[in-house]
């Protein structure tokens, strides 16, 4: 599978830099404008850490990856996260922030949780997503 370039960085879709979190600040309006035509064509997978900025009409299914807090802490620490960024990410997982956001933004029946703790989870998740995609294509063609 060919990976698409990160449109945030290639499309200049950011509005400054957050020193505290050590990351670009996303310009949500520019991102939605950039993706609008691509999403209308269909067949697009969006990988993002939130969902409240995306229109409900764009998605047929939403997968929320869930991770055990201790595994998440170690994973993010290995990536170089520290301080507030590390703490906030772990707290988001503890309080199910992304799951709650997805359930508020989209119809409950299209939101699915998937475990993301081990390499085996990754394989199983990929199989499940592929199966869902194949079934969706069958049902809509």
Automatic annotation (TrEMBL):
Coiled coil: none annotated. InterPro entries: Adenyl_kinase_AK6, P-loop_NTPase. SUPFAM superfamilies: P-loop containing nucleoside triphosphate hydrolases. It is found in: Nucleus. Keywords: ATP-binding, Cytoplasm, Kinase, Nucleotide-binding, Nucleus, Ribosome biogenesis, rRNA processing, Transferase. It comes from the Eukaryota. It catalyses: AMP + ATP = 2 ADP. One of its GO terms (biological process) is rRNA processing. Its main location: nucleus. GO terms for molecular function: AMP kinase activity; ATP binding; ATP hydrolysis activity. GO terms for cellular component: cytoplasm; nucleus. This is Uncharacterized protein. It comes from Periophthalmus magnuspinnatus.
């Amino acid at each position: 599978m060919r990976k698409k370039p990160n449109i945030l960085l290639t499309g200049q879709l950011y509005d400054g830099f957050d020193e505290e979190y050590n990351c670009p600040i996303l310009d949500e309006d520019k991102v939605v404008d950039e993706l609008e035509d691509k999403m209308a064509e269909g067949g697009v997978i969006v990988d993002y850490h939130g969902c409240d900025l995306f229109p409900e009409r764009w998605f047929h299914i939403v997968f929320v990856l869930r991770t055990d807090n201790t595994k998440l802490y170690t994973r993010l620490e290995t990536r170089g996260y520290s301080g507030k960024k590390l703490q906030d990410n772990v707290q988001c997982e503890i309080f199910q922030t992304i799951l709650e956001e997805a359930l508020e933004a989209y119809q409950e029946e299209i939101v699915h949780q998937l475990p993301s703790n081990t390499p085996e989870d990754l394989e199983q998740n990929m199989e499940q997503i592929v199966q869902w995609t194949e079934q969706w294509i069958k049902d809509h063609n």
